[in-house]
Amino acid sequence: MKHLVVILAVCCAPVPALAHKVIAGVFESGDVIEGEIGFSNGDMASGTEVIVTGPDGAELGRSVTDADGFFVYTPTSAVAHTFFADLGAGHVAEVTMSAEDVARVMGVAVAETGDSSSAALTPASGSAASLSVEEQQVIAKAVRDELRPLRREIAAYREQNDLQTILGGIGYIVGLFGLGFYMAARRKLAS
Predict the structure, then answer these.
(1) Which of 16, 101, 144, 158 shows its CA 20 to 30 Å from the CA of 184?
(2) Is the pLDDT of residue 19 over 50?
(3) d(CA 149, CA 21)
């Protein structure tokens, strides 16, 4: 029984520190929605299929993450979009973009009508209308490429000292104290 305690203390002490949270986010990027999926330790979910659903749960489309864990999706309707990805081993990423944000990406405004279930779409006005589609796409790609490293650094900084890391450290300390007390008790019994 005593050996089982030592084995559990040594094997289970690092477990809280090895568990990582899933990080997922979606962002407006010109006329597309860009998303990012990864883990709190900085590993990104590459080659992962992302399923996009509407508010009623109907599938709107799919996308796949690239080697850096990023995906791009072009919306076709100004409704709330939910992005879902199964990363395996119980890790699931799910993030939702509101209908207003999707409408802004599409370049339309959501005008509320008397019936809350339907919305009339009207073209949005702004300086983006003076740029050609190609110019908007080039600008969006340049901004997207510049923001990717910043987003990754912000996510890593945000997750650096979270509760999970603190609990993992406490687990190590408790495990080491338990191992020390066990060794002291064995020496006392041996003498």
Answers:
(1) 16
(2) yes
(3) 19
